[in-house]
Design goal:
Helix content: 10-25%
Largest sheet: 5 strands, antiparallel
Number of strands: 12
Strand order of the largest sheet: 1-4-11-7-8
Number of domains: 2
Radius of gyration: 28 Å
């Protein structure tokens, strides 16, 4: 199926072609609206195909789109007029939801993933892995970021199967901040989670150290040297256990 953008491009071409070929005058009437419904990319595509083969001879009840016959009838001039109008449908876009405002000194927006993946960028370099927002999260949270290893790692990037990076946030250089977050592993051999700030490693939590099947709080002191930072969590599963599950939740990065 053609995309709505290629459809509109072809529609413009067909309007120019048939406006000349049959010398039709555009009337954006009920016939036009029935032939080109803006809310249906599939219908727009079929209308373009129809207009590209339209002639005064071929515009009959047996060749016209059935959705338009009630409004247009079988008069070839009505269809020629509709085809000559050109596109009037404006491409639609889905607005990006704003990041939730951080609270209680925490500079990380959507730190508990209650708003889904908003303000975070997930990446999956390993074809054997995936991610999702799962429920429940850590104590007091409904959601968490979950990295899943479906089978033994296939294409990890430097051992990383999944990573998720926060939005860039403003901080005060030279002031100590405290990072806290909850981690969860399904098995003591499920690997470890690495933490990076501005792509530099600052902390690692190992399933063998924290245990499996429960949420565990992690605390890290960090003093930024730049005015902005991005947090990144990297999920490394290794080859000891598969499938595997790792989670993070309740991320707080605030002045100490």
């Amino acid at each position: 199926m053609k995309s709505i953008f290629s459809t509109l491009t072809l529609l413009a071409a067909s309007a120019s072609l048939f406006g000349t070929a049959v010398q039709a005058t555009c009337h954006a009437d009920n016939c036009y609206r029935a032939l080109f419904p803006c809310n249906s990319p599939a219908a727009l595509s079929s209308a373009v195909d129809f207009c590209l083969i339209l002639t005064a001879v071929k515009a009959t009840a047996t060749t016209t789109p059935t959705r338009a016959t009630a409004a247009c009838g079988t008069d070839p001039a009505r269809y020629s007029s509709a085809c000559s109008c050109g596109p009037t449908c404006a491409p639609t876009t889905t607005p990006t939801p704003p990041c939730p405002t951080p609270t209680s000194g925490n500079v990380i927006p959507n730190a508990d993933f209650e708003c889904g993946i908003a303000c975070w960028i997930p990446e999956v370099p390993d074809s054997a892995a995936t991610w999702k927002i799962s429920s429940p999260g850590a104590a007091g949270s409904d959601s968490a970021f979950e990295a899943d290893l479906l089978q033994y790692p296939a294409t990890p990037e430097l051992g990383v199967s999944v990573r998720v990076t926060s939005a860039e946030v403003a901080v005060t250089p030279g002031v100590e901040y405290r990072l806290t977050f909850n981690s969860w592993f399904d098995h003591i051999d499920s690997g470890f989670i690495g933490v990076m700030v501005n792509e530099a490693p600052i902390y690692t939590v190992d399933a063998a150290d924290k245990g499996a099947g429960d949420w565990h709080l992690n605390t890290v002191a960090y003093t930024p040297t730049t005015s902005t930072v991005r947090l990144r969590f990297e999920f490394l599963f290794g080859n000891q256990h598969a499938p595997g599950v790792q989670k993070v939740d309740s991320v707080v990065f605030a002045p100490a």
